Structure formats: structure tokens, C-alpha cells
Request: fold
Amino acid sequence: MIAISSPYLSKPKEKPLKPAQVRALAALIAGHTISEASALAGVSRSGLNKWVAEDVAFNKAYRESKSESVDVVSRRLTRLGIKATKVLEELLDQSENEAIRLRASTETIHLVLKSLEVVEFSQRLDELEAKWAGTWNGV
Reply:
């Protein structure tokens, strides 16, 4: 068996983030623009842009932080969605106003169809990713 060595196949080594990078990362995750984040971190805008474009460790930390933020928001929205669903249910079951019941019914149908669309899209994406992974595993 021949061992193949290539810089393209090896994983880039990660270095710890500098304090200014940590400050910039926190500012970006908090929703600040590049200009605002660079000012808060005490670095130039071009320096922050370079980290965003080229620094592997910074990008990994940014992606992970952003993913964690999205997870938090998703959990909160799910909790709110459960409350909203209960309200729709109550309106459908208890409201004597036909216009309110019609609106609640229409909104419920819209949300169900949207949910089904998301589930279908997710399943198709999973299938494509599995197919793609199989292509790369065979290389």
C-alpha cells in the first residue's frame, strides 16, 4: 500500500484564538457589523476581514458559536410554537366568531403545509448528503 501525503488531504492545525479575535467573535455573534466588531475588538476592519477570510481557527469558532446561537433560538421558537399552537387550538375550538375560526383554520393549514415542506426538504438533503458522502468515501 502506498501512503499518500498532501497538504490538501491533511487537516490544518488550529491555533488558539487571540484575545482580540475572541472579542471580535463575541461582537459578531451579538449581531454587530464587521466595522462595529472590529472597533469593539480593537483591530482594523481589514484585519477582521482577513481573519474571516483566511483564519481557520477563527472561522471554526465563528461557525460553532453561530451554530450554538441558532440552536438556542430554535429551542426558544419551538417553545413559543407550542404555545402558539395551543392558542390556535383554542381559537378553533372555542371562538364563536366565524372569522376568527376561519383565520385560525387557514393559518393552521398554512403552517402544517410549511412544516411538511421543511420535513421533505430535510429528508431530500439527508439523501443527497449520504449519496455525496458515498462518492467521497469511494475516492
